[in-house]
Amino acid sequence: MAIIAPSLLAANFATLAEEVRDIEQGGADWLHLDVMDGKFVPNITFGPLVVEALRPRTSLFMDVHLMIEKPEAYVDAFVDAGADGVTVHVEACAHLHRTIQTIKARGVKAGVALNPATPAEWVRPVLADIDLVLVMTVNPGFGGQAFIPSTLKKIAALREWIREDGLDGRVAIQVDGGIAQGTARLVTEAGASVLVAGSSVFGVRDRAKAMAELRADAAL
Ligand code: DX5
Ligand code: ZN
């Protein structure tokens, strides 16, 4: 079954704890937290303080997506705040392998993200060292953008390499951006199993229904 990871970015920030409780009770699997620094991406969101504040309020897996420059400098802060997984962008890491080791040394799941124009090949050398590849299906920075169909080929290539390298069940493919009914089917058919969804879950009143519809649309 697909893992549904609602993205906090689309929640009401005036009542964050209630928003998180709502999706947790509604059947979410993970909570996706988008950290932006205004440099790597043209938007600013929040830092470890928000992760720390939410940690005692939820038992969901806290999936921190760092869209920041020099992410290696902030791994400890996010893990100390309560992150269960930390994902860094390959485009932001001069020493990607070392950064992955830094994350894993803290005992949390390590993810590597690829922007839409970044080739899948960039992550292949470290596939066996990580828990998750995040294929961005929009250009990172904002919620509510349209899904980019050319990312499907990248998902399929990664799925194939994961199989070839004997990593099935060890490395998950996550997608982020424009995931809703319809695109959930396309990405899961291509090989993704972790679906980040912002506006299609938090943007509607009945979040439980929205997540159930995503699950029903997913091909696994
Ligand atoms: C985009 C973020 C996403 C975003 C997705 O930069 O990484 O997590 O919240 O939002 P939707 O699902 O609305 O495209
Ligand atoms: Zn994200």
From TrEMBL:
Binds 1 divalent metal cation per subunit. One of its GO terms (biological process) is pentose catabolic process. The active site is at residues 34, 176. One of its GO terms (cellular component) is cytoplasm. A divalent metal cation binds at residues 32, 34, 65, 176. Substrate binds at residues 7, 65, 141-144, 176-178, 198-199. It comes from the Bacteria. Its EC number is 5.1.3.1. Gene3D superfamilies: Aldolase class I. Keywords: Carbohydrate metabolism, Cobalt, Isomerase, Manganese, Metal-binding, Zinc. One of its GO terms (molecular function) is D-ribulose-phosphate 3-epimerase activity. PROSITE patterns: RIBUL_P_3_EPIMER_1, RIBUL_P_3_EPIMER_2. It catalyses: D-ribulose 5-phosphate = D-xylulose 5-phosphate. Pathway: Carbohydrate degradation. Its cofactor is Zn(2+); Mn(2+); Fe(2+); Co(2+). The keyword Translocase does not apply. NCBIfam families: PRK05581.1-4 (NF004076), rpe (TIGR01163). Catalyzes the reversible epimerization of D-ribulose 5-phosphate to D-xylulose 5-phosphate. Belongs to the ribulose-phosphate 3-epimerase family. HAMAP family: RPE. PANTHER family: RIBULOSE-5-PHOSPHATE-3-EPIMERASE (PTHR11749). This is Ribulose-phosphate 3-epimerase. It comes from Paenibacillus antri. The lineage of its organism: Bacteria, Bacillati, Bacillota, Bacilli, Bacillales.
